[in-house]
TrEMBL record, chain B:
The keyword Transmembrane applies. One of its GO terms (molecular function) is ABC-type transporter activity. This is Transport permease protein. It comes from the Bacteria.
Length: 318, 252
C-alpha cells in the first residue's frame, strides 16, 4: 500500500496482445512520483499500448497495473480526475472550437486552471474561435496538451507530445514539462526522440518489440553502456597495442584502435590521467597528431546499440 | 512562474459535468445543419404532403389526424435513433468518446447527457411540428397529453439505446448507412404516411415506430386511452435497448 502510494505508476509483468500478436511482453516498470519518465522506443515498440493500460482503456492480458495506487480499469472513475492525458491524435469534437473544447474539459474539474492562461502559454490565442478540424497538426497537439493540464492533475501521460510541433512549440512544451516536474506533477511521456528523452527525463525506459531493454537515468544509461571516447588523428599504421593502455597510477584500461586509416579511438573510462597516458602513448610511438577530440557517448549510441537488429543485415521473420 | 501546475485534482459536481456535456451536445447538433434538416425537414414534408394532399392511400378520411401523430413519432425516431447513431459512430471514429473516457465525465454521465440532450431536442421539434399540424387543421385532444408524453419518453429511450448499440457494433460509415437505411424503410413501412402492414399484435412488437405512431393517434387524435399492448411494446423495446446498450457500449 505504501509502495503503491509512493509510485505514480507500477507495472508488473504486463502483457498486451492484439489477436495473436504480442504487443507488450511482460513489462515491469516503475515511475516515481514527481519525476519525468520517458518511454523511449520505435514505432510499434509497445509505448502506446502501455499508455492505454495505464489510462484504463485496455485491461492487460496479463500482469498488474497500478496508477497512483489505483487499478486503472476497476477504479477508472476515481482515477480520471487525477490524470491528464494527451493522446497521440484526434480525440476532440471536429466541429467544436478550440476555446469550447478547452472550456468543456475545464468545466469537468473541481479547481481548473485558468483557460486563458493556458491559451496564452501555449500560443493558442489566435485560434480559440477556430474549429478543431481546421487547426494545424501542431495547434491540435498544443490544444491537447492544454486539455491534459487544465484539470490540475497529479499525473500526466503525454503520448508523443511534440510530434507534429515546430521547433518553437517543441521548446514551449519542453519548458512546460520542466515546470510540471518543478511543481510536483508526475509525468510519463512516450517519445522516439532521443534529445527529448535526454533533455526532459529523470528516468528512461527503453522498449523494443514490447519488452523493456534498458532502464535508468540518462546519466546511468550513457555511463553504463558507454564511456568517453578520445578520437585522435595521426598518420596511419601506428603500432596499435594488443593490450590496453593503462595509466601510470593504475586505473581503468583504455583500448586503442585504428577505426579508419589515420583515425584512432581510445575507449574506456577516461579520466584525466588515462587521457594523459593515452596521449603519452601516441608521443612514445612517434605519432604526428593533427587532431584530438573527445566524445561523450550519448543516449542515441545506447539506444541504437540496444535497439539495432541482433545481426545487422539479417532479417528474421516473426 | 512556478507553482502554476501544483496538483489540485478533483471532479466538478456531477450536475455541472453533465450540464456542460449537454450544452456541448446541443451546440454541436445545432452546428450540423444537415442533421437538423433531416430531423425536421422530412417530417414537415411528410406532414404537409401526405396530410394535406391525397398523395397516399390512408385507412381513414381524417388524413391530418392520421399523419400528424405519425410524423411526431417519425421525428422522435429520426433524432433519437438515426441522428444519435450517426453522431455517436463518428464520435467514436474521431476518438472523441475515448478522450471523454479519460476525463472526469463518467460513462453514466455521458449516457445521461446524450439522453437529456436528445429529449430536449425532441421536445423542441415536437413543439414546432405540433404547431404546424394544428395550423393546418389537426385538433389533438390535449387531455391525453400525459400518456402521449409517456410513450414518447419510452420510444426515445428505446431509440437512444438502439443508436448506441448500432454505433458500438459497426464502423462509423456502416453505422451511417445502416441508420439511414432503417430510417427510410421505417418512413415507408412504419405506418406514417401509408398504413402499416397489418400484422396484428405482432406488428406492434416488431415496429416500435408503428406502435408509437398508433399510440399517439389513439391518445391525441381519437382521445382514447392508449392500449396496453402499445405500452408493453414500447416498454419492452426501451428496456431491451438500454440493457443491450449498457452492455455493448465502448469508449473506443
Amino acid at each position: 500500500m505504501s509502495m503503491a502510494q509512493q509510485n505514480a505508476v507500477e507495472l508488473h509483468d504486463v502483457v498486451v496482445r492484439y489477436g495473436g500478436t504480442v504487443a507488450v511482453d511482460r513489462v515491469s516498470l516503475t515511475a516515481a512520483r514527481g519525476r519525468v519518465l520517458a518511454l523511449l522506443g520505435d514505432n510499434g515498440a509497445g509505448k502506446t499500448s502501455l499508455v492505454q493500460v495505464c489510462t484504463g482503456f485496455r485491461r492487460p492480458d496479463g500482469g498488474v497495473a497500478r496508477v497512483l495506487g489505483l487499478d486503472p480499469v476497476a477504479e477508472h472513475d476515481a482515477l480520471t480526475p487525477r490524470l491528464g492525458l494527451m493522446a497521440q491524435s484526434g480525440g476532440m469534437y471536429p466541429w467544436a472550437t478550440a476555446g469550447e473544447i478547452l472550456d468543456l474539459f475545464a468545466s469537468f474539474a473541481a479547481r481548473p486552471l485558468d483557460a486563458a492562461m493556458l491559451v496564452d502559454r501555449l500560443g493558442l490565442g489566435s485560434v480559440t474561435g477556430t474549429r478543431w478540424r481546421r487547426l494545424s497538426g501542431g495547434e491540435q497537439q498544443r490544444l491537447a496538451l492544454a486539455v491534459a493540464l487544465v484539470g490540475r492533475p497529479e499525473m500526466v501521460f503525454l503520448d508523443e507530445p511534440t510530434a507534429g510541433m515546430d521547433t518553437a512549440a517543441r521548446h514551449t512544451t519542453w519548458r512546460l514539462v520542466e515546470e510540471l516536474r518543478a511543481d510536483g506533477v508526475s509525468v510519463l511521456l512516450t517519445t522516439h526522440l532521443l534529445d527529448e528523452a535526454e533533455r526532459l527525463a529523470d528516468d528512461v525506459v527503453i522498449v523494443r518489440s514490447g519488452a523493456v531493454v534498458a532502464t535508468g537515468t540518462p546519466g546511468q544509461l550513457t555511463a553504463a553502456a558507454g564511456v568517453d571516447r578520445l578520437v585522435v588523428r595521426a598518420q596511419p599504421g601506428l603500432p596499435v597495442p594488443d593490450v590496453a593502455v593503462r595509466a601510470a597510477g593504475g586505473g581503468p584500461p583504455a583500448a586503442v584502435s585504428e577505426d579508419a586509416p589515420g583515425e584512432y579511438t581510445v575507449d574506456g573510462e577516461l579520466d584525466a590521467e588515462a587521457i594523459a597516458s593515452a596521449l603519452a602513448w601516441f608521443a612514445a610511438v612517434g605519432a604526428r597528431v593533427t587532431a584530438v577530440n573527445t566524445r561523450r557517448r550519448t543516449l542515441e549510441d545506447v539506444y541504437l546499440s540496444l535497439t539495432a537488429p541482433a545481426v545487422p543485415g539479417l532479417r528474421v521473420n516473426g | 512562474m512556478s507553482g502554476t501546475f501544483v496538483p489540485a485534482p478533483g471532479r466538478a459536481s456531477a450536475r455541472a459535468v453533465v450540464a456542460r456535456q449537454i450544452r456541448m451536445e446541443l451546440t454541436l447538433t445545432a452546428r450540423r445543419g444537415e442533421a437538423v434538416v433531416l430531423a425536421m425537414g422530412v417530417p414537415l414534408l411528410v406532414l404537409l404532403g401526405a396530410g394535406l394532399t391525397r398523395a397516399t392511400n390512408l385507412p381513414t378520411g381524417d388524413r391530418i389526424g392520421f399523419v400528424a401523430p405519425g410524423v411526431l413519432a417519425l421525428t422522435v425516431m429520426s433524432t433519437a435513433f438515426t441522428g444519435q447513431a450517426i453522431t455517436t459512430g463518428y464520435e467514436r471514429g474521431y476518438g472523441v468518446l475515448k478522450r471523454l473516457g479519460a476525463s472526469p465525465l463518467t460513462r453514466p454521465g455521458l449516457l445521461a447527457a446524450k439522453t437529456v440532450a436528445v429529449l430536449m431536442l425532441v421536445c423542441v421539434q415536437l413543439l414546432v411540428l405540433t404547431a404546424v399540424a394544428t395550423a393546418v387543421g389537426w385538433r389533438p385532444d390535449w387531455a391525453r397529453l400525459v400518456p402521449a408524453a409517456g410513450v414518447t419518453v419510452l420510444a426515445t429511450a428505446a431509440y437512444c439505446g438502439l443508436a448506441l448499440v448500432l454505433a458500438s457494433l459497426l464502423k462509423p460509415e456502416t453505422t451511417t448507412a445502416a441508420a439511414t437505411l432503417i430510417y427510410v424503410l421505417m418512413l415507408a413501412g412504419g405506418g406514417i404516411m401509408f398504413a402499416a402492414p397489418d400484422l396484428g399484435t405482432v406488428g406492434w412488437f416488431l415496429l416500435p415506430l408503428a406502435a408509437h405512431a398508433q399510440a399517439l393517434r389513439e391518445a391525441l387524435t381519437a382521445g382514447r386511452p392508449i392500449p396496453g399492448v402499445l405500452w408493453l411494446s414500447l416498454g419492452a423495446w426501451a428496456v431491451a435497448a438500454l440493457i443491450t446498450a449498457a452492455r455493448t457500449f465502448r469508449w473506443e
